[in-house]
Design goal:
This protein has 137 residues and is mainly α. It has five helices and three strands. Helix 3 crosses helix 4. It starts with a helix and ends in an 11-residue tail after the last helix.
Length: 137
């Protein structure tokens, strides 16, 4: 690798690091195929410019995490962190109907773990001081 190539690679890494403010894990459980759409909220004033790009893409139509990463040319992990921030601000939402679109109406398959995680996150956001119940084990 040439010196110029190494500098460009390091520059991309530093930009991604600053983009996520050093965070490497999203706060929400997001799969590569998690579908997102624009929500009623607004991102905070210190959000990265990529957040505006994500919102613009999701306003056009529903997008998956993978598609957003590809469109932005950013690592999926970094995009998941940004999407997680936008979910916290209610600027993005996970549509409730999306996980059920693949199911047959006659099947008795339950909700996906993705749907349950999104529901749990929404409830925690709505009622952060609610009593936590122990999980069945």
């Amino acid at each position: 690798m040439t010196r110029h190539g190494r500098v460009a690679e390091e520059s991309t890494f530093v930009r991604t690091y600053t983009l996520t403010r050093g965070r490497t894990r999203p706060r929400h459980l997001l799969g590569l195929d998690t579908v997102l759409e624009a929500g009623p909220g607004r991102p905070g004033p210190v959000q990265a410019e990529e957040c505006e790009e994500i919102l613009a893409l999701c306003r056009e139509r529903r997008r998956s995490v993978t598609e957003l990463a590809g469109r932005l040319g950013r690592p999926v992990t970094a995009v998941k962190v940004l999407v997680s921030d936008l979910l916290d601000a209610d600027a993005l939402v996970v549509p409730v109907t999306a996980p059920y679109a693949a199911y047959d109406t006659g099947s008795d398959a339950g909700p996906s773990t993705q749907l349950l995680a999104a529901l749990s996150a929404g409830l925690k956001r709505k009622w952060p001081d609610a009593i936590a119940y122990p999980q069945a084990g």
